[in-house]
Amino acid sequence: MARSLSKIVFFLFISFSGFSQTGTEADNVFRPQEYKDQDQFKHFAKRREFIAKWQISQLKNGALVVRLHNNQKLLEGLRKMGNADLATQKEHEQMAINKNIVLAFTKYYSFSKVYFFYSSNSDTLLRGARSGIFLDTNLVMIPTIEMKESFYLLAESDAVYNSSIGFVREDTAKFIKETGNAAKDAAIVIKNKYGHQLKDPFPFYTTNKSTVTGTPIVNILIGGKNVPVALEKKQRVERHYAYVNNLNKYFNSFYNSSKNFQVTDPELKPFLY
User: Fold this and answer.
1) Over the chain, what is the mean pLDDT?
2) 162 bridge partner residues
3) Long-range contacts of 224-232 (CB under 8 A, 24+ apart)
4) How far is CA 168 from CA 35, 41, 171, in A?
5) Which of 23, 47, 141, 217 has an alpha carbon within 20 to 30 A of 269's alpha carbon?
6) In this structure, are residues 206 and 186 in contact, taking their beta carbons and an 8 Å threshold?
7) Rounded-to-integer distance, Cα 270 and Cα 148, Å
8) What is the band of 249 on the pLDDT scale with cuts at 50, 70, 90?
9) Which range of residues forms the domain containing residue 244?
């Protein structure tokens, strides 16, 4: 009982301490999986700042790769269970959401190069593929789209987690799976190439809160015909415009505050990827 209560208290502490866009609210959050005493905390806080500044400077000349969900396993499972109609409905809804995401990034993201791909190709990207997986603005895979930038970060719709991991050396990162409790509902979360969410003070997420009502219907092209799809408020295109516009502003603001930063500590090198 005491252990369960302590977990609840810890979760509430993390939730109310928050993950701020500037890092100021999170600087005093104690994460025992990352350090065991106050001296280690100070060391981690400095490491976190240096790595975040390095990441934003690399991203400016690198690429943001937007991972679009296609729910492949869910759809296959529904069809195997004989729920073909529900599978089609879910497929169309996800297509409509992806269309809105792509349109929003195309219109409102300018901080770096941006590419789009389906989550089912995540392993292919991680193994080094730089073409043959990227999508155009119509969600069609175009073999000639090539990502030439060596550094990239991932962006996708997800929750912000009270992460189970701290900073991980690159030589072990691909073997580490990040887990943890969902601490905040988000519209966009930024992750490294191994799928681990970034850390403050990097502006690694945007919330999905907005007062915009938005357009409820999205037309998607199926078999040469427009099929209308109704979406909940937080998935409507005007909402995605706000999410991406905010992300772009956060990136520019943090980049401007980190200009001319250089990593000189050799101990940080294993964490720069």
Assistant:
1) 87
2) 181
3) 227/92, 229/92, 229/93, 229/95, 229/96, 231/93, 231/96, 231/97, 231/100
4) 13, 16, 8
5) 23
6) yes
7) 23
8) very high
9) 2-271
